[in-house]
Design a protein that fits this description.
Blueprint lengths: L1 E6 L16 H16 L6 E4 L3 H14 L5 E3 L9 H5 L8 E5 L3 H11 L14 E6 L6 E7 L5
Parallel strand pairs: 1-4, 2-3, 2-4
Antiparallel strand pairs: 1-5, 5-6
Amino acid sequence: MALYLVQHGQCHAKDIDPSKGLTKEGRAAATRIAGVAKGYGVPVSCILHSGKKRARQTAEIFEAALAPPDGLLAKSGLNPLDDVTALAGLIDSKENLMLVGHLPFMTRLCSWLVIGDPEMPVFQFQNAGIVCLKRTAETTNWIIAWTLMPAIG
């Protein structure tokens, strides 16, 4: 099955919006990427988010497009500086799970799952982009199967 890692959409600066909700551009990018994922038939059983406003809003946009049967839940352990190894141990590779969170957490989690070292980045995330990981049958590590980003270059 697959694990989809999503960095929240672009958000307002804290001085403009103390809760750092999504900007108009952030909503548009998340809506566009979620629509493309829906068009490809990306199967998601559940979406977990950090609980922060920007992650929740991004997760809600993906939920509206992808209609995961197990819905949307706030999950502790997805905050920017949380321990990736703690969350990694809870991931069930038998379900199609989407995690919506923050940097540097998403970069570190991706690196931990792919190469076993959270300090060596293996992918540069973009706001509202998706990195799809799949576990290989031969190893316990994950591979980057595909990505879908708002911008190229």
